[in-house]
Amino acid sequence: MGAYLGMRGDGVAPRFVTQARLVRIRGQNVLFSASQHAIFTLNDTAAYIWRLLEQGKPTEAVERAGVDARDAHGQVEAAIEDWQRLGLIRPRISPLDISAQEHVSQMLSVAGRRMRILYPIAHAFPTMAIFRHLEVEEATPDTVFQLAEHGDRLHLFRDGEWLLASAPDQMATILKGEMLSDVLGAGSYELALHAAALLKNEQLVLLCGEPGAGKTTLTMALAHAGFGFASDDVTLLNADGRCVGLPFAPAVKSGAWPLLAERFPDLDAAPIFRRPDNRRVRYVVPKAAASLTAQSWPVGAVILLHRDRAARPSLDKVDPVDVLRGLLGGAFAPGGELGDTGFDVLAGVIGSVKAYRLTYSGLDEAVRLIGRACS
Question: Phi and psi dihedrals of 53, rounded to 5?
């Protein structure tokens, strides 16, 4: 892995670096991408183009493989475009290429981790705006993320090492994910809970739910109703039983835009970004998020979400075992395994909090029920 594509005999630097390995299995050409844990099949012409590029042969040599000379260039260019889009090859970008691009710097802090992001000037906005509430004064960073522009794509580097490339409108979501990975990789916590966190009366209310339960939308509605915003997705449980939210701006999917439009009138004017799965999102930073970027809080309540359009709205007390299952679902422990200490801390939290299951369909009723329980 990591061989260069496009090496020429005149000593000119290669154009591309491979991100996959080509093998032939029982007459089929297979590209294996270790980073994606994925395989891709190639026809014989595409496989021949791949090997020619690995060997540094000119594209005209494709003609000898039975490809008409008029089509050789077009086929090579189409193959390279597809392979770049799929992350199977990438342009070789040197440190000189990166340093030659003018950048805008942004220093952020999330859960005590200091991260600097360097944006090319042409692509600094609007991405910078969705992380602005996390900005801190300049200091020595724990991690540096740098973006480099190459053609119509942005390439992301972490501490000088290439990570990935994407379309510019996908990079905000990717940066958010990489910063989350950086925090989780630091390991200074007992358990990362897949839960939103809101502050009420100096205690956190944790919201847990399966995909589609409306966690982000309900989090935004509660923030609008006066709850402090600490996280919409991941909350860290510390050894002292207190939690730290990761207050990245929530990504509101297009289906929720009409539901939140009345509460957030500026939502329709917010830039549209795309996730890597091409779903459209808008980022909204709830008020008071900036004050909750590093402080830890005790947990006062855990609410398991169940959205059901046909059921009567209700907020019912639940068994501690159900809460334990809800919090452990999707949780992540440093090192990959929850130890005895972490489990004891989690059990202690569950034994001391109010625990409910919220069955709901409409936001207004859900906010009213939670507000009454947490008053």
Answer: -65, -40
The domain of 340 spans: 191-373
What is the CATH number for 295?
3.40.50
Distance CA 327, CA 191 (A): 10
Write out the two tokens for 23.
């093998």
Which tens digits make up the pLDDT trace of 102-151?
Answer: 899 999 999 999 999 999 999 999 999 999 999 999 999 999 999 998 88
Q: Are 125 and 195 found together in one domain?
A: no
The predicted model scores a pTM of 0.85
Instruction: Reduce the DSSP state of residue 356 to 3 states and report it.
Output: strand
Reading the block at residue 81, the tokens are 């475009």
State both tokens at 182: 């950086």
**Judgement on whether residues 182 and 201 belong to the same structural domain of the protein:** no
How many domains, in total, are found in the chain?
3
User: What value, to the nearest 5°, has the Cα angle with vertex 114 and ends 229 and 166?
Assistant: 85
The strand pair at 203-208 and 299-307 is best described as parallel
- Same domain, yes or no: 100 and 85: no
Among 67, 90, 113, the domain-final residue is: 90
pLDDT tens digits, 287-330: 766 555 568 999 999 999 999 988 899 999 999 999 999 999 88
Report phi then psi at 315, rounded to 5: -130, 105
Same domain, yes or no, for 239 and 335?
yes
Helices vs. strands in the chain: H and E counts, helices first: 9, 23
The full DSSP string for 97-120 is HHHTS-EEEEEEEETTEEEEEEEE
